[in-house]
Design a protein that fits this description.
Helices cover 62% and strands 0% of the residues. The protein has 18 helices and no strands. The longest helix is centred in the C-terminal third of the chain and has 31 residues, at 242-272.
Length: 376
C-alpha cells in the first residue's frame, strides 16, 4: 500500500545500536510501541498545552494534543500512501521534550540555562524531545534511550538551531542534524506531522479558547477560515447554538483543511515525482496547504495569538509559571536534588530534570523549596 516515496521500514537507515528484528512488527511499529510505553509519554497527561492542568479537566494537555496530531496524521498518510506507523510514532513523540507550563516554561528554562551556561546553546524543546528518546529514557540494559530508527528520530527533531545541528553532526556524522546544515527536507511523513500539528492546535485552541470564556464565537466571526464554516453550519442548522454550533464548525474546518492538504500535496507529488523517500528529501517541501488555505491558517494563528495567547488572564498565568521555572532552576543550581541525574549542579542536567516535570510536580517542588504558592 505504500508509495515509492514513503519511508519503508525494511529500508530504514537503522538504529544507533543494532537489534535483531522483531518477528511480528515492523521497525516503525516497534518504535511507536516504545514511545507509548515510555515514562516521558505518560508525563504528557499532566503537561500544559495552553491552559494549566488545574484550570479544568477538559482543556487539552500535551497528551491529548499528541493523540489528535496522530489521528490527523494517520488519516492523511493513509490516503497519500505514506507510512502510517511512522507518522503516528513521530506525532506521539514530538512533544516529549516540552517543559511544564508550555511555551512559557520553555522560554524561562532557556533563559535560565543560558545564564548559567552560555556555551550550552540554551533549551530547545524539539532538541529535548530527541534527547529524551536518545539518552534520558532508561528502559534497556544495553543502552540509554529508546534506540529508535533514524526516520523516527529525524521526524521528532522538527526544528534545530545551526549551532545545535553542528553539535549533533559532530556527535553523529550524517545523522539527524545533517539536514539542517544541508538545508534539505525530512521525510514526507515528518513533513506531514509538522502540518498535522498546526491543524490540530489551531482547532483545539479555538475550542479551548471558547470553553474558557476568553474567546467568543462573535470574535471568531472576524476570522475568515472559521467564519466560513460557522456560516455553513448555520445554513444547514439555523437554530443551532452553543457547544454543538462550535463543534460542528470546528469539525467542518478540520475536514476542509485535511482535504486541502491532500489536494495540495497530491499535486506537488505528481509534479515532483520523487522515486524514493531520499529523493523526496531533496525536493522543496511537498506536504503543504494550498496558498489560499495557508493564508487563512496564518490569519487564524494571528487571531489566537492576539486574543488567546496574549489575553491578560493567560499572560498573568504564564508570568507566574515562568517564575516557578526560574526559581526552581536557581534552587537546584544552588543545591541539586538528591538521587537525580541533576546531582553535581550541572546546568544541563538540571534543565533535563525540570523539563521532565509535569505541571503539578513542578508546582509542588516550587512550594516545597520556596514556601510560596503561586497558584491556587
Amino acid at each position: 500500500m505504500l508509495q515509492p516515496y514513503a519511508c519503508h521500514p525494511g529500508q530504514s537507515r537503522g538504529r544507533r545500536h543494532p537489534e535483531v528484528p522483531a518477528p511480528t512488527r515492523s521497525e516503525f511499529q516497534r518504535d511507536r510501541d516504545r514511545i507509548v510505553h515510555s515514562t516521558a509519554f505518560r508525563r504528557l497527561v499532566y503537561k500544559t498545552q495552553v491552559f494549566l492542568n488545574h484550570e479544568g479537566d477538559l482543556f487539552r494537555t500535551r497528551l491529548t494534543h499528541s493523540l489528535e496530531v496522530a489521528q490527523l496524521g494517520r488519516s492523511i498518510a493513509r490516503t497519500l500512501g505514506l507510512n502510517e506507523d511512522l507518522v503516528e510514532g513521530i506525532a506521539l513523540a514530538h512533544d516529549l521534550g516540552h517543559t511544564p507550563f508550555g511555551h512559557a516554561g520553555q522560554d524561562a528554562l532557556n533563559e535560565s540555562l543560558l545564564a548559567a551556561d552560555p556555551a550550552s546553546g540554551g533549551f530547545e524543546h524539539n532538541l529535548q524531545s530527541l534527547r529524551v528518546v536518545d539518552t534520558l529514557e532508561e528502559r534497556y540494559p544495553e543502552h540509554d534511550g529508546l534506540n529508535l530508527c533514524f526516520e523516527m528520530r529525524e521526524g521528532i527533531l522538527k526544528h534545530c538551531s545551526a549551532a545545535n545541528a553542528r553539535q549533533l553532526e559532530a556527535e553523529e556524522p550524517g545523522g539527524v542534524g545533517r539536514r539542517f546544515l544541508d538545508r534539505t527536507q525530512p521525510s514526507l511523513e515528518a513533513q506531514l506531522c509538522n502540518l498535522a500539528d498546526e491543524i490540530a492546535y489551531n482547532a483545539h485552541d479555538v475550542d479551548d479558547g471558547v470553553r474558557s470564556g476568553l474567546v467568543t464565537l462573535e470574535q471568531l466571526e472576524e476570522v475568515p477560515l472559521f467564519k466560513r464554516f460557522l456560516r455553513e453550519t448555520l445554513t444547514l442548522h439555523p437554530a443551532l447554538k452553543g457547544r454543538r454550533l462550535l463543534f460542528d464548525s470546528i469539525r467542518r474546518m478540520l475536514s476542509e483543511q485535511v482535504y486541502d492538504v491532500l489536494r495540495a500535496t497530491g499535486d506537488a507529488l505528481k509534479q515532483a515525482t520523487p522515486a524514493s523517500a531520499d529523493a523526496a528529501r531533496l525536493c522543496p517541501p511537498l506536504v503543504s496547504f494550498t496558498p489560499e488555505m495557508a493564508e487563512e491558517s496564518v490569519a487564524l494563528k494571528r487571531f489566537l495569538r492576539v486574543n488567546l495567547y496574549r489575553h491578560p488572564q493567560v499572560v498573568d498565568t504564564t508570568g507566574r509559571a515562568k517564575d516557578v521555572i526560574r526559581e526552581l532552576f536557581a534552587a537546584y543550581l544552588a543545591a541539586p536534588p538528591a538521587g537525580t541525574d541533576a546531582e553535581g549542579g550541572e546546568p544541563r542536567r538540571i534543565a533535563d530534570y525540570i523539563a521532565g516535570m509535569t505541571d503539578r510536580f513542578a508546582l509542588r517542588e516550587h512550594e516545597r523549596l520556596t514556601g510560596r504558592r503561586l497558584f491556587d
